[in-house]
Design goal:
The complex is a heterodimer of chains A (about 140) and B (about 180). By secondary structure, chain A is an alpha/beta fold. Chain A has helices at about 55-70, 85-105, 120-135; strands spanning about 5, 10-15, 15-20, 20-25, 30-35, 40-50, 75-85, 110-115, 140-144. Chain A starts with 5 loop residues before the first strand and ends with a strand. Chain B has 6 helices and 6 strands, in the order H-E-H-H-E-E-E-H-H-H-E-E. In chain B, strands 1, 2, 3, 4, 5 and 6 form a 6-stranded antiparallel beta sheet that branches. In chain B, strand 2 and strand 3 form a beta hairpin. Classes of the chains: A alpha/beta (about 140), B alpha+beta (about 180).
Chain lengths: ~140, ~180
């Protein structure tokens, strides 16, 4: 069923703040989430076409918001490797990029890598759309 | 029951995949993955199968979200009765994806206006139109961004074909897309 297995294994501590890593296993229609607070590498990998997209992405966005509030001075690397996105997932990523762009304009250092297979034109186009729509974000298209 | 009649229709319409029954997210995933493997086995190119995959997802998720009859389960999960057919049109030499589900009368005007507006937009502008809609979130609802038809139109080689049909007092919505 649609029970997303989420585990918080390690805790990252810096100054007065702590942050737990986030790890969610992939399903047939949701990507895996690996957010490492220590290395500041956040990876989302797989297919994304759940029916309850916002329920799936809300905790993920909340984690990123919290991280940006607590550790705004650290550079974050976001690796996005998404083979398929349904239209509601596309919306979730537009919202996430909005959030990241806002943080970036306030001084946060965020690097985004948009990874795709060479023959996946759709994923490439989606990456290009994000670059065009979020000019204040550092987004790099990377062929896997 | 005459199964050979069904086989005959399937052959006539070039059907490679069909389903009629309660559509759930689990089944959606199973159907699109199966249809994708089938098309790959038939030697279809990756771009075609990706387009098919994405259009079928949007159609099936629309059936789940907008059907008149639906079972709503814990955690905002729906299952709804509908029909999905994927086939090859010999005349057009194109694959098609079509679906049908019962809708409420109030949806007819709303859905027609929405699809007509999308069909009036030249294909090369759909990419930008979708992004504007995603940003404005004007069609946002609790299960989606309300942009599924735009996504279907982007992935189709023709305008979206649709109709509403009244059968035995029930109103059905049909949508047909060619890749």
């Amino acid at each position: 069923m649609e029970n997303f297995t989420s585990t918080y294994l390690h805790t990252y501590k810096q100054g007065d703040y702590t942050m737990k890593n986030m790890s969610i296993e992939a399903t047939k229609y949701t990507p895996s989430i690996e957010f490492d607070a220590t290395s500041r590498v956040l990876s989302i990998t797989g297919k994304s076409y759940p029916e309850n997209t916002f329920e799936f992405y809300t905790p993920i966005t909340e984690w990123i918001k919290e991280f940006l509030t607590k550790f705004s001075e650290d550079t974050i690397l976001l690796n996005l490797d998404l083979e398929y996105l349904n239209s509601s997932s596309l919306k979730a990523y537009f919202d996430l990029f909005d959030l990241l762009e806002g943080a970036s304009l306030k001084g946060a250092s965020i690097k985004i890598k948009w990874l795709y297979d060479e023959e996946n034109d759709i994923a490439e186009e989606t990456g290009e759309d994000f670059i065009e729509d979020f000019k204040d974000l550092d987004i790099e298209l990377v062929v896997k | 029951m005459n199964i050979s009649k069904i086989r005959e229709i399937m052959a006539q319409e070039g059907i490679v995949f069909s389903f009629s029954g309660m559509i759930s997210q689990q089944l959606t995933s199973f159907m699109v993955e199966t249809a994708k493997s089938q098309l790959e086995d038939m030697g279809e190119n990756a771009k075609m199968t990706r387009n098919m995959f994405l259009i079928a997802i949007e159609q099936l998720q629309n059936v789940m979200s907008y059907s008149k009859e639906k079972d709503i389960h814990h955690g905002n999960r729906y299952t709804s009765p509908g029909v999905l057919v994927i086939g090859f049109d010999e005349t057009k030499h194109k694959f098609y994806i079509t679906s049908s589900n019962e809708v409420v009368a109030e949806d007819q005007e709303k859905v027609s206006a929405k699809i007509d507006a999308i069909n009036a937009i030249p294909k090369e502008n759909l990419r930008k139109f979708l992004r504007e809609k995603l940003r404005s979130a004007e069609d946002l609802h609790h299960r989606g961004a309300g942009v599924g038809f735009i996504e279907m139109a982007k992935r189709s080689s023709e305008k979206l074909k649709y109709d509403f049909e009244m059968v035995d007092g029930k109103l059905y919505f049909h949508i047909l897309t060619y890749i």
